[in-house]
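ok so for the tutorial part 2 we go from a plain amino acid sequence to predicted structure tokens. step 1 is just haveing the sequence, like this:
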Amino acid sequence: YKPPQRAIFSIEDVRKFTQSKTYSEYLRFVKECGESIRATGIMSGKYPISKTVLNIEKMLNEAEKWIEDFPPINQPMRFGNRAFCSWHSRLSENALNLIQEILSESNKANKFEISQDLAPYLCTSFGNEQRIDYGTGHETNFCLFLYCLYKIEVLTSKDMPALVLNCFSTYLRVMRTLHKNYVLEPAGSHGAWGLDDYHCMPFLWGSAQLIDNPEITPSNAVQDETMIKFGDDWMYVGALQFTRSLKKGAPFGECCSMLYSISNLPSWKKVYSGMIKLYEGEVLGKLPVVQHIVFGKILKATWLINSSSSSLSGASSPQRPSQTNSPREYDAFINVHAPWAQETKTGDYVNVMLGENESKN
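step 2 — the prediction. this is what the tokens look like for a chain of 361 residues:
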């Protein structure tokens, strides 16, 4: 058995990855999941929930309960409580068993080998246990975990609404509990110029979910009364609510400039289209993010890997550069404009104008 290995070591590898069949199939999965939840509330009960989906939720609920076993350590810190390392160690130690329980409803003969292939994505989904940080790359690993289950047909297209509205929503809840307890450091945050410090997918899938919703618009989604009323049922609104909770006391337009500017868009279709482009450009297209993804028998690297880069870097995740290096050399998201954003003459950082003439029709 050969465990999954890194296959992205350079900008050229990123280009090969984004032009690969693996990339296009994963992105199609993301889009199809988005289409499957349009105008569907989390608590609507309008979609089927399979036993495999319930097993994924059970696994996430169990992982969340472990947090009680590792209370935060009393330590001087701004970010990164070391108790997270103990929680993450338990996750790593139990990953294979957790995945085999998820696979228990399938008729796959090689469940252990599948579990070995999927374990790296699951363990990476919740942040880095050494740096005690979390960002969109870790979030993408959880989406890749779900995609791999779909690719090997443990999950089907009928499961897509529940994958987002049950599994991913539960994953978000676990991550928010981890953030609150262990104060994970944002991994490559845009700061005030990003969506939020940690996530992309609740805004991407959340905007898809709100298409054709008659009550919530991009402009009223940022209002407090909307967040209180709809935050539990609509992912985008819940993500705004969580972001606001992390930035108490600061005006929303200042601390969340991009999200505030997005509220000026005319429709959720515009927001969703922009979020797809942002995800491609600022997450899947950034070397500091995708270099951590591993590839194996399920998620395949279909491009020729540079042997010299591979031998120098090995299979382990690259470490953060020393403190003498500028943060700009590591963080992919510092002062980076989204590919669908433009500065305006009035000084706004973001004015999303995808198909301006089209929006007037």
